[in-house]
Design goal:
alpha/beta, six-stranded parallel sheet, globular, about 270 residues
Length: about 270
């Protein structure tokens, strides 16, 4: 009816791309063909639109737009500060997310077990979140004598979450599948080095070996190796953290609007 249509694509994963479903792919390609422009959340989303759904490259405007606001993550009132009582001189690893199989938290616990077998004991792992798998994983950690390293913090109100990113040293995201993974960019915005699986599309924000490390989902031994690098070389925490902060300078909420503005100008002109 003469309306202009912009498709906004946040990112993909095997579970929602349906690359092995001819019917869904035909439907998506039909929708893409009818659209006037596309806004893609980063390079991998752009590749899916162009290479899989046959979007016209000139109509695709791509840059990460699922980016955090540090201010929003620190919204707690001055008279209600977060109760953080895990001060330690040991490196602190942080996981934030649901405690469900898809998020790969068991892989992280297995990596901790490997570190223990390698003789690494001077670290803390903070686990923020809740979910159906929590009881199972707590029992697993207890049975493997990992309790001395792990603090299960449960769900934390969003307004306090930034304080936990600030308190941690290294962020770990072992997910098997995420269409993006906002927590990764949140950690980077707070200047933290990151260890992330290839299951998160936000992995494209990592310069491997510069602001963090990337590993295949499910490879607990590789994850343990990367965690061990920070324990062996604690100076990397500061060096890589500064690199994360530098990367995120170009990815503020204000700058993330540019791809939307470009798409609007394109269809208007």
């Amino acid at each position: 009816f003469g309306w202009k249509v912009i498709i906004i694509y946040e990112g993909g994963s095997p579970g929602i791309d349906y690359r092995n479903s001819p019917l869904r792919l035909r439907s998506r390609r039909w929708l893409v063909k009818l659209a006037d422009a596309y806004v893609a959340n980063g390079r991998l989303a752009q590749e899916y639109l162009v290479e899989v759904l046959a979007a016209t490259p000139e109509k695709v405007f791509a840059r990460p737009f699922l980016v955090p606001s540090v201010k929003a993550l620190l919204q707690y009132p001055e008279n209600e500060p977060p109760q953080i009582d895990f001060a330690t001189d040991k490196p602190i690893f942080l996981y934030v997310g649901q405690i469900v199989p898809r998020k790969g938290l068991k892989v992280l616990l297995e990596a901790c077990l490997i570190l223990q077998n390698w003789g690494y004991h001077d670290y803390t792992l903070l686990i923020v979140g809740d979910g159906d798998q929590r009881q199972e994983l707590e029992a697993f950690a207890s049975s493997k004598n990992l309790d001395k390293h792990i603090k299960w913090l449960g769900q934390i109100p969003y307004k306090y979450l930034g304080a936990y990113f600030q308190a941690a040293d290294i962020f770990v995201f072992p997910t098997y599948e995420d269409i993006w993974g906002m927590v990764l960019t949140e950690a980077m915005a707070f200047g933290k080095p990151v260890i992330c699986s290839q299951g998160a599309k936000a992995v494209e924000m990592i310069v491997n070996g510069e602001n963090g490390f990337v590993f295949d989902p499910g490879q607990s031994s590789k994850l343990a190796e990367y965690m061990g690098q920070f324990l062996e070389n604690p100076h990397l925490i500061d060096v890589m953290g500064k690199k994360s902060e530098e990367i995120m300078i170009a990815h503020t909420p204000a700058k993330a609007t540019q791809s939307f503005i470009q798409a609007l100008k394109f269809i208007i002109n």
